[in-house]
Amino acid sequence: MFSLKTNTYIISLLLLCSTLSSYAQRVKEVRYLSGTDNEHTVDWDFWVTGGRKAGEWSKIAVPSHWEQQGFGSYNYGRDYVTYGKNFRFHEEKGIYRHAFDVPAHWKDQKIVLVFEGSMTDTEVEINGKSAGDIHQGSFYRFKYDITDKIHFGGKNTLGVTVSKMSEDNTVNNAERLADYWIFGGIYRPVYLEATPKAHITWTAIDAKANGSFKSNIYLENIQENSTLRVDLKDKEGQIIGTKSMKVAPSDSVKLVTLDVNQPNLWTAETPHLYHAVFTLENGREESYQTTERFGFRTVEVRQGDGIYVNGVKVKMKGVNRHVWWPETGRSVNRQLDLNDVKLIKEMNMNAVRCSHYPPDKAFLEYCDSLGLYVLDELAGWQKAYGTPVGKKLVKEMIIRDVNHPSIVLWSNGNEGGHNKELVNEYAKYDLSARTVIHAHHRPGNAINGIDGNHYEDYYSTKKILEGPNIYMTTEFLHAQDDGGAAAGLADIWELHWEAKLGGGGFIWNFADEGIVRTDFNGAIDVNRVNAPDGILGPYRQKEGSFFAIKEIFSPVHIKMKKLPQDFDGNIAVENRYHHTDLSACTFQYKLVKYQQPYADAIGIMEETIHDVEVPMIKPTEKGVLQLRLANNWKSYDALLLTATDPHGQEIYTWSWRIRDNAAIAKAILPIKTETAVELTEDSAHYILKANGITAFIAKETGLLVDLANDYSMKMAFGNGPILIDGEYTLKGVTTASVGKNKVVEFDFDGQLDHIRWTMQPDGWLKLDYSYQMNGKRPYAGVSFNFPENYIITAKWLGNGPYRVWKNRLQGVTLNTWENMYNDSRAGIGPWEFPEFKGYFSDVSWVQFNTTQGKFLVVTEQDDMYLRLFDFYGIFGPQHYPKLPEGDISFLDAIPAIGTKLAMGINNRPEVNGPAGEMTVLDKSVSRTLYFYFGTPRGEKENTQFVMPKENILTD
């Protein structure tokens, strides 16, 4: 962490004077006493009263949390709940001291000391004198006028005492006894502001889509008749509107109105911004000037209908976001804020809820410029601020944030943390009178026509969408351990999209709150099941849901899952933008051929790229993309279609098979080297051998129980095919010669019909099996055993590179992929993605690289799922969902996944929509697998599978 070693670090927003003009232009000047962010800090003197390093003076980086600097104790919010009335026994206070200079030329200015955020009660002294009332509340900008307390042109002393817990129990209830990490300290910057005595303190802008502009301009210390001028400027700096008015000494606020002809409008899709320049003039001299950025847009909540932006109904594709970084907690920087906004946009989301407190201002600035609808929220996790302190904090939040066009709604607390006496406070400071909502988890708390009820399932969502309120759920599909989030999202999102009263919603949550513990050698702690709730890991590692959400929320909506037999290049498409014609996007399609299993490379072997002419399709309307297919398109493996938005960002890439698995297998299987096939037996086995490969099949079960290769040691793959959850008994065995092949077939009574093993002269071992399991099943198919600790990599042709669930099949692409073995677990770590273990969809072949060499499995039939080893979806009292037996499975059905603590019926996957239901099996299933227990060598047309000597393990 870089530390600025001087307290003379100055950032000037504008020049104090202009030597090229005949008058001085006066603006606010800012001098940082702390650093500017978590990467650029200043050391202050520090003393903590409890925990680590208690009772001794040392240095601390500011801004920061003191826990992350090695002081005090760690607390998750629930700790204080369990402490009960004794929590003050565990109270910590931090005492800060810092010396600073004040420039002599500031003597005739007003000097304000600003804290962007401090946790929690903050008592400030300047040169031994109280700066003002103790500030209570952790997430808000607060200021002190210290003009009469400082020494101009000399040294000054700042003393700050910060209490981790508040003396106001309603503050503790609202933000400290919460389900998130609780820290202490000055975690956002501290700085001085110098302004002329007569100045503009703040402004509140209301700029509508029709071009009308209004602003309340708050003035201070106007001593003489003056002029107030407002200039509106576009992004090139050209004035598009201007107005002047007289200001008298008695004026403390002035309302200015003017109109702009056909401005570019702000939406999350078209984030057009303007600047308002407010200037105080005394005669011809400009005495003070300040600038605010804004956008023209009209936000309406039409009760019984929907949320409208610029006259168009919008639906929120959103996520909840904590301010967070593993090393520094809630102390962050502009680059982190920017990256988070980009990640949210990359998921094709259009909205974010600032849970459960206002974020850093930079985050809102990027929401403005890149385009996200924002719910800015007053803290109040499940209990509310008291009215006196709550009124102060509402004012502080709105004065700071009011001019951000991205903020479309105010949220007056979360899940019962709603003080209804504060609802009318918002409009006192917000000239545009945005709607105030309650983010809640109990029915009956709808307000102002919006119901934000949390964690409703698919079926209760259908009921709520019948009315009478707009349903915009502020939390749903809890993403602990990468369960929830995208799992079930497609079904629930379709309800919101199609329903008149559907307002969309906000997934819980953006990223795992994993803190780097300075008391445990830098281990990352997510407080077990409490905080690993993200779509991304702590360092923004992309989990599987990230890409599935990207597809589900794509504004280019394509339903086609497979190419029809008579595919002619036409693809039905729906424009799910709200304000953008589809013709503003660009499309390309690729025809691709994939690498073969025996190639050294992975991915695409050959491709041709073609542009697509995009028709005009209005927002929310449907149309057709016409691909002009090359004459030889059927000779390729797959068709890929990529959509790019008007800003040059990829929306999504879809993939469809052209060649089926039967054709792919036909191309892989031929091997010119052959030997005569041998079929022998001993007391326990049928023994099949060809081309140096020997397979031992158990007489009593029909299972592969042992393997040998003339080039290596035995291979441990076997004990299969076990029919998962099936009941059956052996009925009979037959052996036969079929051409050059030798066949052993086992017939069964029960749910397994038969197992047929065929050894071919080239060494391919063919397995045919069929089964019938009627009714609902979480999974269906067969399994084999193989020691997990022998696996190095798996390479496959199929969807990837991420694993899937039955109710989260989106977000994966057809390709050849290769994953190295890892034991990563979403929410627990080491957050290495994609996970090696899991269910993988639409697999044609898979090649395992093991400590015993390589072996290849190929299927002739389509729609096969591959299961790799033991893993779980959600961590809880027991791991969930239950796994099929065995280590490696070849499946025709896989389970869905529920949400957090899925032991309860309300969180089971089936409640979140049809995709979460178990698969209904009602007919016989047959599948063919080919195995080659060796590695490829040589050219395709003359390939022999051998086990290289260097891969042989010896004792």
From TrEMBL:
Gene Ontology molecular function, alphabetical: hydrolase activity
InterPro entries: Bact_Beta-galactosidase, Beta-gal/glucu_dom_sf, Gal_mutarotase_sf_dom, Galactose-bd-like_sf, GH, GH-type_carb-bd, Glyco_hydro_2, Glyco_hydro_2_AS
Residue span(s) of domain Glycoside hydrolase family 2 immunoglobulin-like beta-sandwich: 199-297
Enzyme class: hydrolase
Keyword terms, alphabetized: Calcium, Glycosidase, Hydrolase, Signal
Span of domain Glycoside hydrolase family 2 catalytic: 299-519
Catalytic activity as recorded in UniProt: Hydrolysis of terminal non-reducing beta-D-galactose residues in beta-D-galactosides
A Pfam family assignment: Glyco_hydro_2_N
Superkingdom as given in the UniProt entry: Bacteria
Gene3D superfamilies: 2.70.98.10, Galactose-binding domain-like (2.60.120.260), Glycosidases (3.20.20.80), Immunoglobulins (2.60.40.10)
Cofactor: Ca(2+)
EC number(s) on file: 3.2.1.23
Domain (Glycosyl hydrolases family 2 sugar binding): residue spans on this chain: 56-196
PROSITE patterns, sorted: GLYCOSYL_HYDROL_F2_1, GLYCOSYL_HYDROL_F2_2
Signal peptide: 1-24
Quaternary data: Monomer.
Family of the protein in this entry: Belongs to the glycosyl hydrolase 2 family.
Protein's UniProt name: Beta-galactosidase
